[in-house]
Each structure stands twice: as structure tokens, then as C-alpha cells.
């Protein structure tokens, strides 16, 4: 088993909403201040120092299929942080806090101002359930099962980046504007 959880970066989606909104090509390759959206996410993961695995294709394009593929590809991990590749403002400290919280509970869901975000953390005991996922629903069923058992932690974080995803051209412009203000 590897030390610490592995960040599974989901980069296999079709990006249908992005193209429907007028976007050209993949939202993960869309330019965000000189580099692709996905590169911003990967840079945060690399700054965190956590090991990671990028899922660029899965048997299906559903989020659950991508999660299952990533978990199966890293089967020796002690846990997983599931991070969609369209969250370019995610902070590396958020990744650390979720990873650390996995020592307390087998499922960790980060929140910002009461809203659930990513990455969602799963301990090793969740392997079978995660590896068997399929379809579009992500890992919501696994999270729900652990919440019902009182074994899922909602972890408040001071990071709006855990919620700030890019699904449309308007989302991309909003993130561009946020980054411009931060510079």
C-alpha cells in the first residue's frame, strides 16, 4: 500500500455543457491566463506534494466510470481524493486538509459556506464500492451510504476554489475575472 491518499484527477468527460454554451473543444484545454484549465488543477496538485493519477479516458464518459477507472488503476493506495479537472482555483491546502481528515473518517466531503465541493476523500475501505461505480452519478451513492452510517465528515474549508468549476463559457469568463483581480 502507498503512503497517503492519491489524488484522482478526472479529465475524461465529454464537456457537453461547455460546447453547448459556445465553447470550442475541451473545457479542460480552454485557455485560462496562458495555460489550459487542467494545467491549473495539476499545478495545485503538484504543489500539494500528494501523489496523483489523471484519468483521461474511461470505458464510458460518466463521472462514476472515471472514478472507478482511477481507483482501480491505483488499487494499492491507502485512499483517494476525487478531484474533477475543471476546478482551476483549488488550493493545495484544501487537498492537504481533506487528505489529513481521512485519518478521522472514511469519507470526507469538503464544504465552503455550507456548499459541498471537491475533492471528496475516500479511505481504503471504500475501494470495492468505488471500483464498482458506473454511470454519471459520481460517487454520491458511496458518500450517502457513509453519511447514513455517521461515518462521513463534512469538512468546512475557507476555499471557494473547491466549488468553482468550469462547465460553460460564462464559468470560464468568471474564473478569468477572478484570477485577473487576484493578480
UniProtKB/TrEMBL annotation:
Q: Name one Pfam family in it.
A: NTP_transf_3
Name of the protein in question: MobA-like NTP transferase domain-containing protein
UniProt organism field:
Pseudomonas fulva (strain 12-X)
Span of domain MobA-like NTP transferase = 7-146
Record's keyword terms, sorted: Magnesium
Instruction: State a single Gene Ontology molecular function.
Output: nucleotidyltransferase activity
Q: Any keyword Acetylation?
A: no
Lineage of producing organism: Bacteria, Pseudomonadati, Pseudomonadota, Gammaproteobacteria, Pseudomonadales
